[in-house]
Amino acid sequence: MPPTSTPLAKLGFLTIGLFDEADPRRGHESTLKLIELGERLGFDSAWVRHRHLQYGISSPVAVLAAASQRTSQIGLGTAVIPLGWENPLRLAEDLATVDVLSGGRLNPGISVGPPMHYDHVKQALHPHTADLEDFGYERVQRLLDFVRGKPATDFSGVRGFEVFSERVQPFSPGLGRRMWYGGGSLRSARWAGEHGMNLLTSSVVKAEESEDFAEVQLSHIRAFRAHHPDGDRARVSQGLVVVPTDSASPEQRARYEAYAAQRLPRTAAPQGPARMLFAPDIVGPSERIAEQLYAHAAFREVNEVAFALPFTFEHEDYVQIVTDIATRLGPALGWRPTG
C-alpha cells in the first residue's frame, strides 16, 4: 500500500448523460448541472461518454461546448469518442473550437475500431465507402496531425476577399498535448505511448497475458510509459466504477449494492471472443473504498483518476455520489480540491 504522503493529484468523474426520449433536454441539463457541481466541489475534470443511437450523449463535443460556457476552471473530457463515427478533419475543427471557447480545458479521449453494430448502421454512416473505411490507428494519426497543426490542404493564401489556411482553424496550440487514447490492450497502450498521447484506462481490458484485472491494467500502464517520450511522467488516468455511500440514504445504498451485485458475475472470467475482462464496481464507505484502491496494483501506478458513475441512476443519486467523491473519498486518497 502506498504511503498517504503520495497523494492523488487529479480527481475527475465520468458520466453517461442519460435522458428520456420524451424529454431529452432534461437529461442534458442534468449532465450540465452535474459538471457545474463538479467545478464547485473542486474536481479537476469532468468527462462525458458517447452513446450513438441510444438515449445518452451522442454529441459529447457539443455538450462540452455548452459546459465550457457554464464553467471556468474544470477540465472537460470525452471518454471516449469512437473515431469510426467521425471524419478526423471535421472532428479536429470541432475539438479546436471547443478548446478555444473553454480557454484550453478540453481533454479529448478517442478510440478506434469499427462502430458498434456496424453491419446495421454502415449504410447510414458510410453509404458509399462502408467496405473501404479504415478503422485502425491511421485514423487516429490523421486526427493527431490535424490537431497538432500539420497541413490539411495545399491551398492557402488570399483569394479575393477571403483568406485560407493550410491547417485547421482555429488552431489551439496546447490541444495536441491533451489528446487521450482509450486503450484496453497492450497494443493500444504501446501505440498511444509511441505517439505521445495520454492514456485512459477504464474498467474494461483485454485478458491477454493474465486473467487478473489489476495485473492486466498494470501491464498496460507500464507498456504505455515504456514507449512514451515522457517515460514515467506520461499521464495515465484510471477510470473504475466507484460509488461511495457515506451520505447515501438506506434506499440509495440498497440500490447501489444491488446494481453492483447484478454486474458482478461478468467480472468472474473474460467475456466473449475478445476476452474482455471487467473490473468489479466498488461500492461502500469512502474509507473502505480507499483501502481497496490502495490495494489495487494499477491504482498504485497512477496519480489521476476519472471515476465512472454507474448507469441508470437518478440526478439526485449522482449529486450524492459526486459530492461524496469530492468531500470524502478524494481526501481519503490525499487529494485536495482545485480552487
What labels would you give this structure?
TIM Barrel; Luciferase-like_dom; 14 strands; about 350 residues; LLM class flavin-dependent oxidoreductase; Luciferase-like_sf; two-stranded antiparallel ribbon; globular; alpha/beta; eight-stranded parallel sheet; Bact_Lucif_Oxidored
What does this molecule look like?
The protein is α/β, with parallel strands linked by helices and 339 residues long. The protein has a single domain (10-153, 163-332), classed as Alpha-Beta Barrel (TIM Barrel). Helices cover 37% and strands 17% of the residues. The protein contains 10 helices and 14 strands. It has helices at residues 24-40, 60-68, 88-102, 118-125, 137-147, 186-194, 213-227, 250-263, 286-294, 315-332; strands at residues 10-15, 45-48, 75-82, 106-111, 157-159, 162-164, 180-182, 198-202, 204-206, 236-239, 242-244, 276-278, 282-284, 304-308. The protein has an 8-stranded parallel β-sheet with strand order 10-8-7-4-3-2-1-14. Strands 5-6 form a two-stranded antiparallel ribbon. Helix 6 links the parallel strand 7 (180-182) and strand 8 (198-202). Helix 6 runs parallel beside helix 7 and helix 9 (286-294) crosses helix 10. 41% of the residues are buried.
**What is the CATH class designation?**
Alpha Beta
Low-confidence stretches: none
The CATH architecture classification is: Alpha-Beta Barrel
- Per the CATH scheme, the topology name is TIM Barrel
Strand neighbour order, sheet with most strands? 10-8-7-4-3-2-1-14
Measured as a percent range, the helix fraction is 25-40%
Structural class computed from helices and strand pairing: alpha/beta
Number of structurally distinct domains: 1
Oligomer class? single chain
